[in-house]
Design brief:
By secondary structure, the protein is an alpha/beta fold. The protein has 14 helices and 12 strands.
């Protein structure tokens, strides 16, 4: 199937026939026939972006990989977007957009578009509470967003019934060859990279597909300026530590994580044991809780029960806890939703905490 064919609208009946023929599970589809996308930065931990200055290399990339995006100015359609699974032509400015992956609801709202449908992330709602708070003027539209199941098993019939003109999904944890083929049978589909490390690339790519990339770039420029201003307050910046518990799993988060990227933007150092860049996070045992020490600790437990940490025998023995510099934070923004408005909330928290 060609990309021109993928960009043409289909009737709901024809879409459901296609889905029925391939089955309503992602595993039943044939591999995507998209041409290979442009070369992307290497895996987490690479120096994927240009140096910030002499001797400084960013872990979190700030620009799209060479050749990605459309190259068009905002508002110009048709536009052909090169993304993580090839190239997709979008004939007109999308108005009915569905999002399949965590963080994409955030990114779309940040550039002024409310999706008509979205999947729910693990441990998060279809529209996380922080987005309802951040976009009160869109309350009615957010209330009307249709839930499309889970991100790894979206409800394809419900998605097709929404008659979207653009579908957005990320590649993290997905068999994107099969998934892209399935979704492209419904509407033009753009695949972002996913994970907290690549949120700035994903934000720009998603915005490009909407014809709003320059708007996203302006937002990022403001974010970087504000983060740099925070870091400039310190002659000797304090170390910041990030810790999360979900179920029996306890993790510290490195530089190549979402929260770690915001700390990097502000030039805030990390404790030595959290300075790794080869993965998002590392699991620790309850006996290793002191590894979460730092000048400041930002922690959360999935579900928002602070006692998940505070009731642990070793918790009060961690020096940062004894010093009163351990801060419970919003799990959605720090650890679940890698999007620009979540990044703004993380930066808000860092500013508020470090100012005291």
């Amino acid at each position: 199937m060609s990309h021109d064919q993928l960009s043409r609208p289909r009737s709901r009946r024809s879409v459901l026939v296609l889905l029925g023929a391939g089955g309503l599970t992602l595993a039943s589809c044939s591999p995507a026939e998209d041409p290979a996308p442009a070369a992307a930065p290497s895996v987490a931990g690479s120096s994927a972006a240009a140096p910030a200055g002499a001797g400084t290399v960013r872990v979190t990339p700030r620009e799209l990989p060479a050749g990605w995006g459309s190259g068009e100015v905002d508002g110009v359609f048709p536009r052909t977007v090169t993304h993580a699974r090839g190239r997709t032509t979008i004939d007109r400015a999308p108005a009915r957009v569905t999002v399949i992956s965590t963080g994409q609801m955030d990114a779309a709202l940040t550039v002024g578009l409310v999706p008509v449908g979205s999947t729910a992330g693990d441990g998060a709602g279809t529209v996380p509470a922080y987005l309802e708070e951040a976009f009160p003027a869109s309350a009615a539209a957010l209330e009307a967003v249709v839930e499309l199941g889970g991100r790894t098993e979206p409800n394809l019939e419900a998605l097709a019934a929404l008659a979207p003109d653009l579908i957005l999904v990320n590649a993290a944890g997905q068999d994107t060859g099969q998934l892209h083929t399935t979704l492209s049978a419904i509407a033009p589909t753009v695949v972002t990279r996913g994970t907290g490390l690549y949120w700035k690339q994903d934000f720009q790519l998603l915005a490009d597909a909407l014809g709003r990339r320059e708007q996203a770039q302006d937002w990022l420029a403001g974010h970087h300026e504000r983060a740099a201003a925070l870091g400039s307050r310190f002659t000797d910046a304090p170390t910041v530590s990030f810790l999360r518990k979900n179920g029996d799993r306890v993790r510290v988060f490195g530089v190549a994580s979402f929260s770690g990227s915001v700390a990097e933007d502000a030039g805030l150092p990390r404790p030595q044991v959290q300075s790794f860049t080869d993965d998002t996070s590392r699991d620790i045992s309850l006996e290793e809780l002191p590894l979460a020490d730092g000048d400041y600790l930002f922690y959360s437990a999935q579900g928002g029960d602070e006692a998940e940490f505070t009731s642990l025998p070793l918790w009060p023995t961690i020096p940062v806890v004894g010093a009163g510099r351990a801060v419970e934070v919003d799990d959605d923004t720090f650890y679940l939703n890698a999007g620009p408005t979540a990044a703004r909330r993380v930066l808000d928290q860092l500013e508020t905490t470090l100012a005291t």
